[in-house]
C-alpha cells in the first residue's frame, strides 16, 4: 500500500503520484513535462516579456499580433473645395442620415439631418449622398465627397475615406435624425455638435484601437 497520494493540477490536467517514495526530482520532471505539453497544445498568444518563462519550459512561442493604435485626424479640404462628411444610421429597420459641410478653414457652412423611416443601411447611405449632391449643385460649390460622379450636376467630386473616429460630427447628425421629422437643414452649428466640431477644427487626434 502506498504511503501517500499527491495530485498536482495545471491547466485543468491532473498529475497523480502514488508511490512508496517520491523524490523532488520526479515531481519536477513530471510537472515540467506537463507544462511543456500544455503549452504545445495551447492556441493562446504570448507577449515578448513572457519569452524567458516559455523558454524555461521549452514551450514554443505563439506570438501575439499586436496592431498599433491609430491616430485619426479630420483634415480640411484644399482651396477652393468644400468637404462634406456623411453617415447613415439604422436602428432595427428605421433609418436616418446626416451630413456636415465645411470649407478649407474648417468653417461650418451647413448641415442636415434626416429621418428616413423604414429602410436599409444601404438606402440610408445613398439618400445621404443624394442630399450632398443636391446641396453642392444648388449652391454652385465644389464638394469633396466619397465615390460619386457628379459631372451631370456641374460639380467636381473627389473621393475619400475616413475612419469612424474621424467622422464623429456626421455620425452624431445621423443619430439626431431619428428624433426629427423629414429633412432638417441646419444653418447654425447645433450645440450637441460643438465638442466634436471644434475638436476637428483644432486637429485634435482621436484614437482607433485595434
Automatic annotation (TrEMBL):
User: Which InterPro entries does the UniProt entry name for this protein?
Assistant: RNase_H-like, RNase_H-like_dom_plant
Which domain of life, per UniProt?
Eukaryota
The entry's protein name is: RNase H type-1 domain-containing protein
What's the source species for this entry? Medicago truncatula
Q: Which gene encodes it?
A: 11435821
Amino acid at each position: 500500500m502506498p504511503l501517500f497520494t499527491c495530485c498536482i493540477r495545471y491547466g485543468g490536467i491532473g498529475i497523480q503520484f502514488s508511490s512508496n517514495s517520491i523524490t523532488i526530482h520526479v515531481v519536477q520532471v513530471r510537472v515540467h513535462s506537463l507544462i511543456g505539453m500544455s503549452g504545445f497544445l495551447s492556441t493562446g498568444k504570448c507577449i515578448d516579456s513572457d519569452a524567458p518563462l516559455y523558454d524555461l519550459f521549452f514551450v514554443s512561442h505563439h506570438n501575439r499580433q499586436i496592431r498599433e493604435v491609430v491616430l485619426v485626424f479630420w483634415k480640411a479640404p484644399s482651396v477652393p473645395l468644400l468637404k462634406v462628411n456623411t453617415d447613415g444610421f439604422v436602428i432595427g429597420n428605421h433609418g436616418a442620415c446626416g451630413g456636415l459641410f465645411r470649407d478649407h478653414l474648417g468653417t461650418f457652412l451647413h448641415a442636415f439631418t434626416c429621418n428616413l423611416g423604414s429602410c436599409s443601411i444601404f438606402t440610408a447611405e445613398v439618400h445621404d449622398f443624394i442630399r450632398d449632391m443636391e446641396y453642392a449643385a444648388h449652391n454652385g460649390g465644389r464638394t469633396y465627397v466619397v465615390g460619386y460622379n457628379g459631372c451631370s450636376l456641374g460639380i467636381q467630386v473627389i473621393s475619400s475615406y475616413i475612419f469612424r473616429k474621424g467622422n464623429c460630427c456626421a455620425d452624431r447628425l445621423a443619430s439626431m435624425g431619428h428624433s426629427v421629422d423629414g429633412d432638417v437643414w441646419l444653418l447654425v452649428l447645433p450645440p450637441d455638435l460643438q465638442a466634436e466640431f471644434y475638436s476637428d477644427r483644432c486637429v485634435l487626434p482621436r484614437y482607433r484601437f485595434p
